[in-house]
Amino acid sequence: xxxxxxxxxxxxxxxxxxxxxxxxxxxxEGYFQHAYGLRHKALAGAGVASAEDATVISLNPAGxxxxxxxxxxxxSLFMPFRKYSATNTALLPAGTxxxxxxxxxxxxxxxxxxxxxxxxxxxxxxxxxxxxxxxYDAFASRTxxxxxxxxxxxxxxxxxxxxxxxxxxxxxFISAGYARKLTDGFSIGIAPVFAxxxxxxxxxxxxxxxxxxSSVGNVTNKGYDYSFxxxxxxxxxxxxxxxxxxxxxxxxxMWMSKFSKYKGLFAEGGDFDIPANLxxxxxxxxxxxxxxxxxxxxxxxSDVKSIANSQLGTDxxxxxNGSGFGWRDTNTIKVGVEYQATQDLVLRAGYSYMFPQxxxxxxxxxxxxxxxxxxxxxxxxxxFRVDDNNDIDFAFMYATGKHSGPEYIYNPAIPxxxxxxxxxxxKMHQIEVSVGWTYNxxxxxxxx
Length: 448
Prior knowledge:
The chain has helices at residues 2-21, 38-42, 267-270, 305-308, and strands at 70-87, 96-99, 105-117, 120-136, 142-145, 151-154, 165-183, 186-202, 225-241, 244-251, 255-256, 277-285, 290-299, 330-342, 345-355, 376-385, 390-410, 418-440. The protein is mainly beta. It has a single domain (2-440), classed as Porin (Beta Barrel), CATH 2.40.160.60. It has a 14-stranded antiparallel barrel with strand order 1-3-4-7-8-9-10-12-13-14-15-16-17-18. A two-stranded antiparallel ribbon has the order 5-6. The longest helix is centred in the N-terminal third of the chain and has 20 residues, at 2-21. The protein is elongated and about 75 Å long. Residues 1-26 have low confidence and may be disordered.
């Protein structure tokens, strides 16, 4: 037991380190993952009303009671393939198609739950998130607007900066949760969450001047900057009968310290809080072997100005009403099916659909950096029981989406000036393959 606990502690430290150095690109539901634990990944993120392992702390902490003492560890290889095509555009090089580089990202997660008594449980978890990661090479030669008027030709990138163009956002969460059963079939849970963000932008020199930003020198090519903060997730779970259960979970906005190195980029002087989200759902035990889950999730991007402000903002970047990404609140419908194929094997499948398109439709220029275009997600996976204590978990995901919109360029230094561009087509598909291990301390394997 002591050896196992030491191993768990070592893995926790390793996972935290990997999460901090792995450049995430998890733009699945905006820039949130569709799920964190492997069981819920295989169910397309459904299962807020159905808890079976420790990773449910990241979805609904109320489900931690009664699932036994467990340790879960997993890693995902996330592969997003992103590209844009520009037609008759003014700033983006017209008539070109460019693909983002660096398409494989390791994403670890782990969780541990311990039952305190028959009616309460405690859990801890570390998991990663991210979503704005792109890297585009500079062109050998292209023509761009010159700062003083006219044009200039040189080896510029898509947004007329020098060198490669790219952005990298990583988020790591550390959560501890407590759940308590108040009556038979009804439990509540709470899980404070500590968050760390890491961000950098490079190659956007064309916007780092007094014509566009309130803080020249704090827009791009500043290296990594870090932000710290947190919030809380609360949840309830109700099971009025053996064949049906309901669940609801809400994660508050996470109030984060500002990215001081990028106070000329993000609204409100570098503010970049993490949006709140809500998920509700039901689980139906259709047969002794089959369970069906139906969930709804909403992410409140509109509460964070750096994300929600229009790209055609009327003020300089870095100010309260400065340009953002123009993202809207999103909704996702999730359906998951779990089937006990044999005594030692559980199979899972899921599908989710996100609406509306997260990006605004009157300008998509900055979305080249963060193409949140995913609409459809198809998932699958399962759990194989090795013995009474050990399970092997596996999951996969395929997601796809596209979006087209006009390129508009706004220059707040010239009142009323908006230069219309052509059309920008954004496309992305994603593949994720995950594998994990669950240790059941009491011998209560998830696969029966």
